[in-house]
Amino acid sequence: MNARLSRSAVLAVLTLLVIVVLSPFALVALNAVKSPAEYASGGPLSLPDSLYFKGLADFWIRVDFGEKLFNSFLISASVAVLAVIVSILNAYALGIGRVRGRGAFLVFFLLANLLPQEALVYPLYYLSKEVGLYNTQLAVIIIFTAIQSAFGTYLLSSVYTAFPREMLEAAAIDGAGKWRTLWRVVVPISWPSLSVLFTFFFIWTWNEFFLPLIFLISNDKQTVPVALGVLQGDRMMDATTTSASALLGIVPAIIFFLIFQRTLTRGVMAGAIK
Amino acid sequence: MFTTRTRAAVTALLAAASLVLAACGADADDEGGGDGKVLKLWHYEGATSAMGVAWAEAIKQFEASHPGVKVQFEEKGFEQIRQSANMILNSDEAPDIMEYNKGNASAGLLSKQGLLTDLSSEAGKRGWDKISPSIQTTCKYDEQGIMGGDKWFGVPNYAEYVMVYYNKDLFTKHNVRVPTTLAEFEAAMDTFVKAGVTPLSVGGAEYPAQQIFYELALSKANRSWVDSYQLYKGKVDFKGPELTYAANTFADWVKKGYIAKDSAGIKADPMGVAWTQGKFPILISGSWWYGRFVAEAKGFQWGTFLFPGNSLHPGSGGNIWVVPNKAKNKDLAYDFIDITMKPEIQSLLGNSGGVPVLGDLSKITDPKSKELIENFDKLNSSDGLAFYPDWPAPGYYDVLVAGTQHLINGTKTPAQVLDEIAKPYNDNLTSIGK
């Protein structure tokens, strides 16, 4: 009886939390399908009389949203793949290879990770201008590969420090070199951690606003979050179109998260069976 | 098992590599300047706004009068231009012509950094200097980047000003006539208060409250006070008659119930929505609302009048066209600015809900636009634009928001508020050596 009571209490609290978390999304969705006139007469909380999709369509056309989706996907996917590879190589050296001074390296990477992006802007701006990469997606990919892999190295190194030594020794006895051990033994076994990293890198890069805003000048190179910024005016705010754009902006991230979520669980299961 | 994994990993790697290559390949097409064949133009106004409509037509006319030249237009986000204008203009990616915010902290700063082209000779030659002196103030900057200087760095196509929006249906219902003096205005608001209606929709958490405060100061001020306050041409006494009257009257208006106690926490957008919902009869704010109200305030008849009794009003020239110093086709940029100042483009801007700087009222056919521009002509003929209260010092916007919030909440007396807002103002004067 008591257990059941506490269970339903937990359930109630969880339901409440879910509502609190979801209510901003609901509000955005509500205003995204409301006409500006209805917003003006009813305010943000009123229910629309009819669904109004013109705001969504107008915004899509205005910023050429398909192109922005492609750009974001290109940058996020490249960064996620490259940053995972760099993290693997670094962490293999630091965690399994146990190179000298690895503690110092890890502290350095952690510090680099804590640095605010605003502090990086001017040095990166001058560097990229010098090498002719200002206003290119490649610049953003390189920068984020470095930033994300700093965190990835930190995390993956601690995973690899706990890597079963017997496994490595067995591989060595079987005649596998360092390179072979990495790709045939270490990477497959740490696959679950790698897919977690990949997912995080993808979503973090997808949501990045500040550096893409500074580095991607031409409209045809911009990413989704930067395109959403088009609507922020000096004084005026167009609430319904802003909601429409916000909805368009979150939906891809949610979809990707759901897709990755499934591969994530699969990765974890595969690891468990071995 | 491993091999399929490896294969997947290799495929992912290859995919990533090809993505990177594709990214590299995409930037090869960035040439396009210097040969007089392309005008690279950026602005950040929506396509349906008055400026968006007028400028689209200007681009069309420009291409017609410059055969062989293509306008490469990009709609930018205000945020991006604000954050990175100085970096963009210092690189080869700079456009030939760009919309930019007027004022010391924006266009003034860029001009001081040497990133903008001096337009003085073009302005004289092409007659852009026909616009009224107070609009010119935001076009011209001195070597410190302070507005009201001697060199032209930008040209505006439109102006903006603060006015009183009123709900005609509620005025009729409560038998209130449009006031022509401040006393009549207060009497009108008294009538609403007696009927249990709060007269003013005020957003105390953002710019609207300080603009009402400034209107009240301007009711006692003249041009030389404005020059002192905005352009540092003289000393401003924060305990003088202008600001003392403003602070006392503002506090009075709260006491008498013209301004609701809870408006300290209201932002500008909800303020506008509350007015379009018909909850308040009066809203004091700028012409930037006009187009939106025309489109969205459907439930009642409404009109506007200038703040009663004032000859000076908050307002200024709009955002300006600037020509970056690194622009590759400056002559084309000048030609484009010239087209935007032509009568037909100015009239189009007026008929689309904007306030043209060189408008001709007889060419304005749209009745709602006519009212807007008529009022502007009234105040422009006496050169009545007094800029905005937060302009004189960096970060002053927040100081004024806090000050007016204290007045609304009654947490500080008017005299205390005046002391509070005087300090940052005077600190700034010291720091720029005035």
Automatic annotation (TrEMBL), chain A:
Keywords attached to this Swiss-Prot or TrEMBL record, sorted alphabetically, are: Cell membrane, Membrane, Transmembrane, Transmembrane helix, Transport
Pfam families, per the entry: BPD_transp_1
Q: Which residues form a coiled coil?
A: none
Note the superkingdom of the native organism: Bacteria
Q: Which CDD domains match?
A: TM_PBP2
Subcellular locations according to the entry: Cell membrane
Organism of origin: Phytohabitans aurantiacus
What membrane topology does the annotation report for this chain? Answer: Multi-pass membrane protein
Q: Where is the ABC transmembrane type-1 domain?
A: 69-260
Please report which protein family the annotation says this sequence is part of: Belongs to the binding-protein-dependent transport system permease family.
Gene3D superfamilies to which the protein is assigned, alphabetical: MetI-like
**Taxonomically, what lineage is the organism?**
Bacteria, Bacillati, Actinomycetota, Actinomycetes, Micromonosporales
Membrane-crossing segments per the record: 69-92, 104-126, 138-161, 182-206, 242-260
Name this polypeptide is given: ABC transporter permease
From TrEMBL, chain B:
Q: Does the keyword Signal apply?
A: yes
Q: Which UniProt keywords apply?
A: Signal
User: Quick check: keyword ATP-binding in the entry?
Assistant: no
N-terminal signal peptide: 1-22
Listed InterPro entries: Bact_solute-bd_prot1 (IPR050490), SBP (IPR006059)
Protein name (record): Sugar ABC transporter substrate-binding protein
Q: Which organism is it from?
A: Phytohabitans aurantiacus
